[in-house]
Amino acid sequence: MSEPRNWAVQVRCFGAPDGLGVVDAPLPKVGPGEVRVRVLASSLEYTDTLIRRHLYPQTAARRAPFVLGYDVVGEIDQLGDGVSGFQIGDRVADMTVVGSNIAYRTLRASDLTRVPAGVDAAEAVALILSWTTAYQLLHRAARVQQGQRVLVHGAAGAVGQALIVLGCMTGLEVWGAARGGHATICDVFLTTLTGRCRLTVRTARRSAAMPLSSRSKGVVVPKGTWLRLDRFSPDAVVLVCASQAFGHEPPPATGRG
């Protein structure tokens, strides 16, 4: 039986999408403490586009060519020496940063998380970066407590949506801010996942401060609007999703920031 082909999406040069190419890479050999997986799903998300454009700090030192793919879900087909707790056929997930837009790859067994049976591989891989980031923002950076009031700026994005759901699960009063064109995305998302949350749409003028209100759970702002913190209560938590503001400069501060 012939060996399978190991097709990969490679960054040949930084910049536009035409710098990507599909290549036939050698099949990797599993090493000690590693597993090899047949990739079932890998990421193609905003962070991957930053890496392709050479704008992502974590990969700034990397030079082309290399394979994209921040997240991966795969099925183990080889076990390296010293690996315990896994067996061939197990489905696992990992956050690899690069290297996962490929048919087969090796992973360190110590970095793996099991993917439960019945969970779709594409849905699982979509959770890894965005939802891990959201969890860390809430519980490691902001250290939120039940009952706190939280504003998520950039609520229509992947991290913003995750913050809303995880915040509700934590017992927070969660607010979301998004551009007007994204109101429908937020509304459908919230209603589908929670079955009870609805988005109240409000618009705000450029650079206007938006005081929080217990009667509304959503604020939709036009493109280019910047939020000031001078009217928020001292114990409010503001979480900004960086993808919404990447590459832009805020206006000069006119109050407490």
Would you give an account of this structure?
The chain has 257 residues and is an alpha/beta fold. It has two domains: 6-124, Medium-chain alcohol dehydrogenases, catalytic domain (Quinone Oxidoreductase, Chain A, domain 1, Alpha-Beta Complex), CATH 3.90.180.10; 142-244. It has four helices and twelve strands. The strands form three sheets. It has a five-stranded antiparallel β-sheet. Strands 11-10-9-12 form a four-stranded parallel β-sheet. α2 (121-141) crosses α3 (158-170). Residues 196-231 and 242-257 have low confidence and may be disordered.
Outline the fold blueprint:
Layout: E1 6-11, E2 20-25, E3 34-42, H1 46-52, E4 66-67, E5 71-79, E6 91-95, E7 104-108, E8 113-114, H2 121-141, E9 149-153, H3 158-170, E10 173-179, H4 183-194, E11 218-221, E12 237-240
Parallel strand pairs: 9-10, 9-12, 10-11
Antiparallel strand pairs: 1-2, 1-4, 3-5, 3-7, 5-6, 6-8
Uncertain regions: pLDDT < 50 for 5+ in a row? 196-231, 242-257
Q: What percent of residues are in strands?
A: 15-25%
Helix content: 10-25%
Distance between the termini: 65 Å
Count of β-strands: 12
* Mean residue pLDDT: 78
Helix and strand content put the structural class at: alpha/beta
CATH architecture of the largest domain: Alpha-Beta Complex
Instruction: Specify the CATH homologous superfamily of the largest domain.
Output: Medium-chain alcohol dehydrogenases, catalytic domain
**Which class of the largest domain in CATH terms?**
Alpha Beta
Total domains, how many?
2
- CATH level-3 fold name of the largest domain: Quinone Oxidoreductase, Chain A, domain 1
